What we know:
- By secondary structure, this protein is mostly beta strands.
- It has one domain (5-63): Microbial ribonuclease fold (Roll), CATH 3.10.660.
- The protein has one helix spanning 35-39; strands at residues 5-8, 13-15, 20-24, 30-34, 44-46, 53-57.
- The strands form 2 sheets. It has a 3-stranded mixed β-sheet with strand order 1-6-5, with no helix packed on it.
- The longest helix is centred in the middle third of the chain and has 5 residues, at 35-39.
- The termini are far apart.
- 18% of the residues are buried.
Amino acid sequence: MSVYDEVEIEDMIWNEDLEAYTYQCPCGDLFQITLEELRLGEEIAHCPSCSLVIRVVYNPADFQSSTGETGNGTCVVAAA
């Protein structure tokens, strides 16, 4: 899969309404990746308006719950 760019999770913005991390797409919409996708180890964020995708650079361990299960827990991202 060809990606448009690689973006650090720290450069993305948490969007409460979408319940996803977002990043501005050149088409004017937002690349999006949810906490659940991050917890599952997904690293590709999609733009819902065009065919572009980005690779999200992050540490998957930062998004695991304390019990190791996925779900609606609180996520804490460590500063680099």
